[in-house]
Structure formats: C-alpha cells, structure tokens
Amino acid sequence: MTPALTEKLVETARAARDAGHGKRGAIYDAACAELGMSRATLLRRLKEVSVTDKRKKRADAGRSALTRDEAALISATLREATRKNGKRLYSIADAVETLRANGFITAGRTDETTSEFFRGLRVV
C-alpha cells in the first residue's frame, strides 16, 4: 500500500467511525468510487490500517480460585466415573454438586461484605 492510499484509508475509517447509524454505507461507497476498489477490498484494507481495542478483560480475571486439593478431588472423581470405553458417568457440574453435597469440597466463595456464600467458583 502506498502512503497516500494508507492516508485515505485512515481518513475513511475515521469518517466511518464518527458517522451516525446508517451513514457509513455512503462513506464506504464514496471511498470505493474514489479509490477504484470493491467494497469488500475496501473493508479488508480498512481492517489492516485500523486500530481496534482489545477485548475487555473480565473484572474477576486472575482472582478465581479453587484449592489444589479440591481440584484433585474433582479430577479423581471424574476419572473414577469414566468407563473403560471413555464414556463419562459424571459431568463436571454433577461431580462438583455431588462432592459439595457430601461435604468433601466447598467450591464456593464468601462475600466478605455481606457474609453471603456463593456456590460459584469465582472471586476468592
């Protein structure tokens, strides 16, 4: 791509980003006519020159935890509940539910502000 083409593509991308709903098509059509390329090629080139934000990271990323002993117990239960032909008798959710019901694992968290116990495995 030439610097002039890159500059025009960046200008088109900025105009399309700032355009209201339903007005991008006209901007793309004008750019296609000016640059002499199809809409698919234009959009592909715009993708190459545009800077996009990364996906937002989860708020609880890196803070979810399961103790190693609980994870080992869940793993052992799943392995024991697998037949020789590879079919599983337990899903992970069923294994966790059974182990939790029998008191072998907690697999949950306590909200420190309300002292409420949640059965999810997030935010320890």
Protein described:
There is one protein chain. The chain is 50% helix and 5% strand. By secondary structure, the protein is mostly helical. It folds into 2 domains: 3-49, no CATH class; 68-118, no CATH class. Strand 1 (109-111) and strand 2 (116-118) form a beta hairpin. The radius of gyration is 27 Å and the shape is elongated. This is Integrase.
Strand order of the largest sheet: 1-2
The count of strands amounts to: 2
Strand content: under 5%
Oligomer: single chain
| Radius of gyration of CA atoms, rounded to a whole number | 27 Å
Biggest β-sheet: count, sense, barrel?
2 strands, antiparallel
- Give the domain tally: 2
Distance between the termini: 50 Å
**Can you tell me the overall shape?**
elongated
What is the averaged pLDDT score? 85
Structural class: mainly alpha
Secondary structure: elements and pairs:
Blueprint (H helix, E strand, L loop, with lengths): L2 H16 L5 H12 L3 H11 L18 H13 L11 H10 L7 E3 L4 E3 L6
Antiparallel strand pairs: 1-2
Helix pairs in contact: 1-2, 1-3, 4-5
Summarize the structure.
By secondary structure, this protein is mainly alpha-helical. It is built from five helices and two strands; from the N terminus they run αααααββ.
Question: What keywords describe this structure?
Answer:
5 helices, two-stranded antiparallel ribbon, 124 residues, elongated, mainly alpha
